[in-house]
């Protein structure tokens, strides 16, 4: 019997990426544009297919999805990744972050992240990486460091990239205490130092 969250995992990772048939590199090559591509068509598809689930997740109304590692992962995607697509460039893009952080810490305490494939764990560890909190940023870097160290030789470059991105996020929070590129969306006033920083290449994630 298919679990209710399986269509979401199949869409996000590809059907092969939900099992042991594909390597992390193959899954990332096939799905990377969905994950990081910022395309209107993909945002629309996310909204049409999974928007109702996102609203349920934001209301913390999917308790049955929090009973094992795969449902937990799917719930995290609904809270952390899909709002960034469905509500892109609006405050609601970050509406699920606090609940996602709570779910991540609860699930990791149960060892659920260790039951997932490394490429799936990336999307668990992105949750603390998205936090405007230095302690959580430090945790994210540590988690991505472990993924990199455990990666097969052929996939070390892929996981080195994820680690580098975590370190870049950490440096921004260590410097400013917040993600400066979110200021305009959230109605926050940027300092002069932040405004200068936002003119630099790679300052926006």
Question: How would you describe this protein?
Answer:
The mean pLDDT is 94. The protein has helices at 6-13, 24-36, 40-58, 69-86, 97-109, 118-129, 134-150, 156-176, 183-186, 192-197. It is 64% helix and 0% strand. The protein has a single domain, classed as Serine Threonine Protein Phosphatase 5, Tetratricopeptide repeat (Alpha Horseshoe), CATH 1.25.40.10. The chain is globular. Helix 3 (40-58) crosses helix 4 (69-86) and helix 5 (97-109) packs across helix 6 (118-129). It has 205 residues and is mostly helical.
Would you state the CATH class? Answer: Mainly Alpha
Helix- and strand-based class?
Answer: mainly alpha
- Please give the largest β-sheet: none
The secondary-structure element order is HHHHHHHHHH
Structural domain count: 1
Low-confidence stretches: none
CATH architecture: Alpha Horseshoe
Features:
205 residues, mainly alpha, Serine Threonine Protein Phosphatase 5, Tetratricopeptide repeat
SSE blueprint and pairings:
Elements: H1 6-13, H2 24-36, H3 40-58, H4 69-86, H5 97-109, H6 118-129, H7 134-150, H8 156-176, H9 183-186, H10 192-197
Helix pairs in contact: 3-4, 4-5, 4-6, 5-6, 6-7, 7-8
Quick overview of this protein structure:
The chain is mainly alpha-helical. It has helices at residues 6-13, 24-36, 40-58, 69-86, 97-109, 118-129, 134-150, 156-176, 183-186, 192-197. The chain has ten helices and no strands.
């Amino acid at each position: 019997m298919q679990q209710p969250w399986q269509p979401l995992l199949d869409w996000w990772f590809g059907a092969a990426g939900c099992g042991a048939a594909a390597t992390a590199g193959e899954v990332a090559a096939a799905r990377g544009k969905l994950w990081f591509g910022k395309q209107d068509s993909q945002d629309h598809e996310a909204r049409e297919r999974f928007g109702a689930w996102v609203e349920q997740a934001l209301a913390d109304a999917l308790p049955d999805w929090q009973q094992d590692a795969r449902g937990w992962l799917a719930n995290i995607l609904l809270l952390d990744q899909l709002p960034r697509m469905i509500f892109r460039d609006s405050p609601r893009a970050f509406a699920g972050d606090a609940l996602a952080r709570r779910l991540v810490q609860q699930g990791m305490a149960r060892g659920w992240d260790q039951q997932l494939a490394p490429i799936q764990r990336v999307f668990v560890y992105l949750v603390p990486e998205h936090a405007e909190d230095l302690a959580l940023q430090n945790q994210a870097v540590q988690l991505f460091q472990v993924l990199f160290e455990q990666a097969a030789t052929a996939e070390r470059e892929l996981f080195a990239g994820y680690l580098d991105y975590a370190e870049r996020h950490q440096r921004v929070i260590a410097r400013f205490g917040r993600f400066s590129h979110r200021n305009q969306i959230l109605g926050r006033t940027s300092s002069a130092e932040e405004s200068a920083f936002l003119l630099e290449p790679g300052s926006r994630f």
